[in-house]
Amino acid sequence: MSRHSKQKEKRPLTSDSDSGPDDRGPAPKGAKKEKPGNPYKSKYEAKPQTSKPTSNNSKDDDEPSWDLGRNKWVKIRPFKGTTYIDIREYYVDKETMETRPGKKGISLNCEQYQKLKSIMDDIDHALP
To answer: Which of 29, 70, 77, 78 has the fewest CB atoms within 10 Å, counting from its CB?
Structure first.
């Protein structure tokens, strides 16, 4: 007997138990609800772009930083004697309430950053 000829037994859509919600269907499109109390939404959407370095945390005052919005930052930082341009998403540690760098991001050395700058026009022209 092949796999395709077997009939799967379907479970009924309703249940007599009180273990879950009555509505078992998928949410309608466009019904995505925003989480209440999202600390990033209003803070970053209305923020104008700036070319002056700012800081998202008082202990990083020695690192020039630029806010890209939605908790993404560009920072210039030294690491093991080399200067890096770090473009990274940050998160708030729930235990300490400190803003910390996340896994999502890239660190470019100065040579890589200069190469990126030199191909920026080509990248802009390739965008739809």
So the answer is: 29
Instruction: Report CA-CA distances (Å) from 101 to 6, 13, 45, 81, 112.
Output: 51, 45, 20, 20, 21
Return d(Cα 56, Cα 73) in angstroms, integer.
Answer: 9
Kindly compute the dihedral angle of the four CA atoms of residues 35, 40, 41, 47, in this order, to the nearest 10 degrees: 180
Phi, psi of 32 (to 5 degrees): -65, 120
Single pTM value for the model: 0.54
Q: pLDDT digit of tens for each residue in the chain (128 aa)?
A: 555 555 555 555 554 444 445 555 555 665 555 444 444 443 333 343 455 566 555 454 589 999 999 999 999 999 999 999 999 999 999 999 999 999 999 999 999 999 999 999 999 999 99
Cα–Cα distance, 79 to 86 (Å, whole number): 11
State how far Cα 113 lies from the chain centre: 22
AA identity, residue 42:
S
